[in-house]
Amino acid sequence: MKEKINHLVIVESPTKARTIGEVLGPDFQVVASFGHVRDLPKAELGVDEETLEPKYVIPPKARKVITTLKKLIAQSGDVVIATDLDREGEAIGWHILQATDSGKGQKAPQKIQRITFHEITRTAISEALQHPRDLNLDLVNAQQARRVLDRLVGYKLSPLLWAKIARGLSAGRVQSVAVRLIVDREREIKRFTPQEYWTIEVSVEKGSVRFRATLTAWEGKKLEKLAIKTAAAADSYLADLRGMPLSVAAVASRESQRSPLPPFTTSTMQQEAARHLGWSAAQTMRVAQALYEEGHITYHRTDSVNLAASAIDAIRIVIDKTFGKTYLPEQGRQYKTKSRGAQEAHEAIRPVHPDRQPGSLSGVEPRAQRLYNLIWRRFTASQMTPARFKETTADLAAGKGLFRATGSTLLFDGFLKVWPTKMETQTLPDLTKGEEVAVRNLEKVQHFTEPPPRYNMASLIKTLEEHGIGRPSTYAPIISTIIGRNYVTATRGVFAPTDLGTMVTDLLVEHFPAIVDVSFTAHMEEELDGVAEGAKPWKGVVGDFYRPFAKLLTEKQAEIQKSDYQEVLDEKCPESGHSLVVKMGRYGKFIACSGFPECKYTRPLTVTLNLTCPECGQGQVVERKTRRGITFWGCSRYPDCKWATWKKPVEPLPAKT
Predict the structure, then answer these.
(1) CA angle, residues 222, 223, 228, in degrees to nearest 5
(2) pLDDT band at 345 (very low <50, low <70, confident <90, very high)
(3) Is 292 an active-site residue?
(4) Homologous superfamily (CATH) for 144-191+453-559
(5) In whole angstroms, what is the distance from residue 260 CA to residue 348 CA?
(6) How far is CA 602 from CA 167, 594, 605, 621, in A?
(7) What's the rounded Cα separation, in Å, for the pair 322 and 625?
(8) Which among 237, 292, 299, 487 is annotated as catalytic?
(9) What is the β-pairing status of strands 488-491 and 494-497?
(10) Can you tell me the distance from the alpha carbon of 585 to that of 169, in angstroms, rounded to the nearest whole number?
């Protein structure tokens, strides 16, 4: 006779199953589905284009899991779906029921219940078990809508890219917008023309304190930032100022406060992990997933900065005990979420046990300790008193000119005690109106206006969030995908588009503008949010997008010519006599015969610098690419000479001695 299971709890991962099993005890059997148990097929579209109905299959790796789950469900008194609390988790739970024949059409039988919780603790899970619910099919449908939309765009648009640019390419509904942001920023940088300007600066000394002041007014009129355009103009100011006494014309001081930042959301956690730890978004999420599943932090996919009252009470005790009452505000602080479409019912990312300070977690790998350190400090700082500063502005008169110096003095560190922030400022001495101060140096300083910087991990995630592109669970896969497809490179954490990424973006902008339009993509996210809220039918949202897109795609198949994306060379193929063309491959440009596929002649497109190899002194320095499409520079005599460098040489290199 089969042994009866009182309570069967199904989660996604073995680690989560182990942690929950330890919390619940022997009356509960907790098992893992190992993620999704059904998905769209890999080798075909998997979506009925008329009805938009997805054709789910059980992947081979999930079949054994499904067999096991069916047996366990049959033996169980009740079944609890405890997958993650977002749309993906809701969809995983629904697929488990469908794959195990535990659902009745769209609704699960009475004995199957759904629970969610923000943290893996006895209190949170017990509370959830006392208030189970049915699966939320609106959340399931929102996930289905996203999955179907992305499949339709990817499987329908990618073949066009194969035919018009190069085989093996793919396009994504959200990823293409991220690539466009990077391409547009690169073009903005290249179009930028630096403007030269100069400032007049003076180094001043009073007692043991030195500080700097900048010329801000001349003959009673304000000097704009770019007012002094040449060295000659700067010299004329210096000539008038030299030898002039410098005296204090005005001094103003005020006290200011700096309030702490909110606790982490997924986006801000990824941004700070990139800044402080140098991590990619994907790496941050892997480590956060482990911390969550081991019961150390709350759920890590969230766009809310809301905090449970119990968590605020707990950290206030820690602050009082660790730092003292001067660091504790009169009452706990709640924050208002500003991101578009944020779900206030969710919580910010915080430690489950605030009294477990950084370094105190046992059995946790070093990387997880480092991320936990950030999470704990950010959460703790969010509930501490503001930092207080004395801000001072001094105007110093000399002849026709007026210099201004600003300074800041920290009066009380407050939250900076645990979340220090770099501040590029100076401290001014006590100054009195009318007193003369000593000039130690008077000089002109050359500057150039600078273009906007390239996106890095933090700024790209922040921009995606600000525009409402993607949601907390999608930032990491978006970035991983565009790097993996070789549409962008990430060198030392800074993104730049590849030739391939630029070409694909240009095609999409010209012929499929909605696919790469920031506002349109953000609108689609809002439509998916409407599905999740039960306000919109998911097939209606998908159909409103797909049917015009499918019609446009048919038109563009005939309109777009492959020759539009190939450069014809004034050179014939040595094998067939056809013209040679520059083609785009997944890892960059190459030369090929225009008679392909009848003639398969190809050769690399070599960019040669007018520089001699410093290693052998015989070869030329040429551009090369790794298998991942990353550019480096090496000797043209490779493999006889293996000299290479990641940095593009701009002048003759010293020969090896």
Answers:
(1) 165
(2) low
(3) no
(4) Topoisomerase I, domain 2 (1.10.460.10)
(5) 15
(6) 15, 10, 9, 22
(7) 53
(8) 299
(9) antiparallel
(10) 9
CATH superfamily of 266-382: Topoisomerase I, domain 4 (1.10.290.10)
Gap between the Cα atoms of 522 and 296, Å rounded:
33
Alpha-helix residue ranges (DSSP H) falling in 338-410: 366-382
Pairing of strands 620-625, 401-412: unpaired
The domain ranges of the chain are 5-135, 144-191+453-559, 196-259+387-448, 266-382, 567-645
pLDDT at 110: 47
Whether the Cβ atoms of residue 584 and residue 499 lie closer than 8 Å to each other: yes
Tokens of 633: 């520079």
> Which alpha helices (DSSP H) does 76-174 contain, by range?
87-99, 122-130, 137-164
SS3 112: strand
The two domains 5-135 and 144-191+453-559 share their CATH topology (first three levels equal): no
pLDDT digits (tens, 9 = 90+) for 315-343: 999 999 999 999 999 999 999 877 655 55
Higher pLDDT, 609 or 104: 609
Kindly compute the dihedral angle of the four CA atoms of residues 180, 184, 187, 193, in this order, to the nearest 10 degrees. Answer: -170
Inform me whether the pLDDT recorded for 108 exceeds 60: no
Q: How far apart are CA 431 and CA 394, in angstroms?
A: 8
Residue 7 phi, psi (nearest 5): -135, 120
- Tell me the two tokens of residue 536: 């919109």
Spatial separation of the C-alpha atoms in residues 623 and 647, rounded to whole Å:
11
Output the six-digit token pair for 121: 């603790």
Which H or E element spans position 326? Answer: none
Asked if 55 contacts 47 with a C-beta cutoff of 8 angstroms, the reply is yes
Multiple choice CATH, 196-259+387-448, 2.40.50.460, 3.30.70.120, 2.115.10.20, 2.70.20.10: 2.70.20.10
Residue 62 is inside which H or E element, if any? helix 60-75
DSSP letter at 646? S
Q: Is the peptide bond before 597 cis (omega within 30 degrees of 0)?
A: yes
What pLDDT score was predicted for residue 251? 97
Q: Is domain 5-135 classified as CATH 3.40.50.140?
A: yes
105 pLDDT tier (thresholds 50, 70, 90): very low
Whole-number Cα distances in Å, 507 to 187, 510, 564, 642: 16, 5, 10, 37
Look up residue 252 and give its two tokens. Answer: 């103003």
Q: Three-state SS for 165? A: coil
pTM of the model: 0.85
Please tell me the distance from the alpha carbon of residue 30 to that of residue 18, in angstroms, as a whole number: 7
Cα–Cα distance between 538 and 53 in angstroms, integer? 11
Residues 6+ apart with CB under 8 A from 554: none
Contact yes or no for 381/327 (Cβ under 8 A) = no
Token look-up 């602080």 returns 333
d(CA 421, CA 415): 10
